Amino acid sequence: MKKPEGERQDDIIAAARAVALRGGLETVSARTVAAEAQLSSGLVYFHFGSKDGLLQALLRHLMDTALDGPRRGFGQNLSADEAFFSMVANEVAGLNEFRDEADLLFQFYFFRRGTEFRSTINAGLNAYSESMKDVTDRFALEKGLAPDAFRSSLLALIQGAAVDAVRRPTEFDSEQIIQIIQNFSATTQDLNRFT
Q: Is residue 106 exposed (0-12), middle (13-18) or buried (19+ Cβ within 10 Å)?
């Protein structure tokens, strides 16, 4: 029975993800993905046109799942501290669940040097940063910190944690990272009293 086109495309992207996780992005081809999805190579080309078209679709899928950030209006009904720590807990705890996606994003960024991939990832990271802006700005202003520098530092910490989750998956502990961020906040508040 023929599947709807959208469902067939999802199957092909899932197969491309599986191939890439097993052997790296360089092993993704119409042939390897078709074999994984138990389809003909022609169907892969029909839906995505080329290997780069398939890789672009895989990258868009990764961006949608791994870099979605908090929803608009997140934390408005919470204090600045509660909204910030809830957001950070969600993002850092999610690194365990999206470790494979982070691994593939790093592969796209560092091993596929094409600007079309990097520009897509950079746009996604900018949107991810923007999704946190309301929460981080409110928190930073309340603590007497520069909002842009604070958000940039937080993103660097989350991205570094993502590297750690990929690099050391069995040792990675999101709860410890969340606790450290909460301790940074308390330390920052104490330092602000003396300046």
A: middle
Calpha distance 51→26 (Å, rounded): 10
Residues 6+ apart with CB under 8 A from 33: 12, 15, 16, 19, 44, 54
Q: Could you give the angle at the alpha carbon of 103 between the alpha carbons of 98 and 106, nearest 5°?
A: 125
Sequence-distant (6+) residues with CB within 8 A of 170 are none
Count how many residues are written for the chain: 195
CA distances from 26 to 29, 51, 106 (A): 8, 10, 13
Give CA torsion, residues 7, 23, 121, 154, to 10 deg: 110
Average predicted confidence (pLDDT) for the chain? 88
Tokens of residue 99, six digits:
């470790």
| CA–CA distance, 56 with 48 (Å, rounded to integer) | 9
Rg (C-alpha) for the chain, rounded Å, is 20
Nearest to 72 by CA among 155, 134, 125: 134
The model's pTM: 0.81
CA 155 to CA 173: how far, in whole Å? Answer: 18
pLDDT one-digit tens code per residue, 70-92? 999 999 999 999 999 999 999 99
Pairwise CA distance, residues 58 & 88, whole Å: 26
**HSE-CB for 180 with a 13 A CA cutoff:** 10
